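Sequence only, no structure available. Ideas?
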Amino acid sequence: MRVLRDRLAAAAAVRALALGVGLSALLLTGCGPSGDSEAGGEVLRAPRVEAPDFSYPDLDGNVVRLSDLRGKTVVIDFWATWCPPCIFQPEQLNAFYDAHRNGGKVMVLGVEVGGATPDEVRAWAEENDAEARYPVLTGADEDLARRYGAVGFPATVVVAPDGRIESMHVGIVDAKALEATVAPLLAGRS
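Reply:
I predicted one. Tokens follow.
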């Protein structure tokens, strides 16, 4: 009986370890379009091409157009409600946004690309304790994110004040890494 208990305990420990490793890997990766996990977590220097313009409503119905933000550094988080790692991105982006919201040089936008309605996004955010303090836009689709070079979600794109894509990060990006990416742009270098 004791041998059986020991084996069951060992099996439970292995399952717990595997679950912990799996969850850690999920946090460091992004989701593919079907919700499957893809490798991520790296900052990719983009070839400084013009960022595709877009115009979508925020959760309150106010239309936000990227080209209207020319002159500012714009951080765009492409995400979807079906993407498990996307739950963890708003906390980091909120910290970054709070540090820059009153400076007038930086804008953070969340762009939901999975087809969720504003009410579905609000419910998802509340249910997952993932409420954004920055504008969240709806109505976009994955094709928009792909035009920016996104290969998984969340994907964070930094657009320089001149309207060119500066960098792309697939997976969870923390506020410190984002600060390091944006600092040269705020100093007038790119």
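The first strand starts at residue 30 and ends at 31.
Hope that gets you unstuck.
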